[in-house]
Fold this sequence. Notes:
Blueprint: E1 2-7, H1 19-22, H2 27-40, E2 44-49, H3 53-62, E3 69-73, H4 82-91, E4 95-99, E5 121-124, H5 129-143
Helix pairs in contact: 3-4
This protein binds ligand CA2.
The site of ligand CA2 has 17 residues, from loops.
Amino acid sequence: MRILVINGPNLNMLGIREPGIYGSDSYADLTTFIEKVCADRGVEADIFQSNHEGAIVDRIQAAYGAVDGIVINPAAYTHTSVAILDALKAVSIPAVEVHLSDVSKREDFRHISYAGMACERTYAGYGFDGYRLAIEYLIERHGK
Ligand code: CA2
């Protein structure tokens, strides 16, 4: 099984600022965490981060026929991007949305998720562990 993990804009800045919201671990710590979760479960992981909406759309399209599941934290594009929503719908790969913070308890503009409309599950507010929950959901779903 192969899983694509996509992280959106500014997540590469993790640990540098706003540790109260996003924790003090770095983006490298996050990729190490995801790689370990996948390796422990015998899953191949592709991890992709971009600050560019079109690059994220391109990566989702490239996943067509190549991966069994997508874990996506679209970051700020969550709340704005119909293009990412449409790309997820176009490839029709089982997808799960993850947010480090509990977006439902933050500003109103973070309550809408376009990408989430194409996702089977959302894990928000669990920090890094949300990625584990998303990966485990996709593994379980794949096995059925
Ligand atoms: O909680 C999440 O995972 C978010 O997707 C993170 C996004 C935010 O726009 C979403 O509403 C919720 C922001 C990601 C980058 O944030 C940083 C900001 C400053 C320093 C380091 C990271």
